[in-house]
Write a structure and sequence with these properties.
The protein is mainly alpha-helical. The chain has one domain (2-98). The chain is 92% helix and 0% strand. The radius of gyration is 34 Å and the shape is rod-shaped. This is Mediator of RNA polymerase II transcription subunit 9. Keywords: Activator, Nucleus, Signal, Transcription, Transcription regulation. Component of the Mediator complex. Residues 1-19 form the signal peptide.
Length: 99
């Protein structure tokens, strides 16, 4: 898409240079300008679309990072609880063995 705009722009510049040198305007000059404008608009839409996709993927990655952090935090809390539970059970078993 952008390559086509470059080609159309090159043609337009050449035609414009010819028109300036000769003082005449080629009959296809207006069509080239319209085509260039159309191609530029399409390229701009494509770039906006790509930008939106990148932005949404970035948001998705950020969301996934937050979810992983939350999950890790929950996992660490569970580990602490399991460790406390194990300590309590060990204390109970020790006190039972002493009696």
């Amino acid at each position: 898409c952008c390559f086509l705009i470059f080609l159309a722009f090159s043609q337009l510049v050449e035609k414009l240079a010819d028109a300036i040198e000769t003082g005449t305007k080629d009959q296809n000059f207006d069509k080239l300008v319209d085509d260039l404008t159309t191609q530029f608009a399409r390229c701009q839409q494509l770039l906006n679309s790509i930008s939106g996709t990148i932005s949404s993927k970035s948001m998705t990655v950020e969301g996934q990072k937050r979810k992983v952090e939350e999950t890790m935090q929950q996992l660490n809390q569970r580990r602490e609880l399991i460790s406390k539970y194990r300590s309590c059970i060990e204390e109970l078993v020790k006190s039972d063995n002493i009696r």
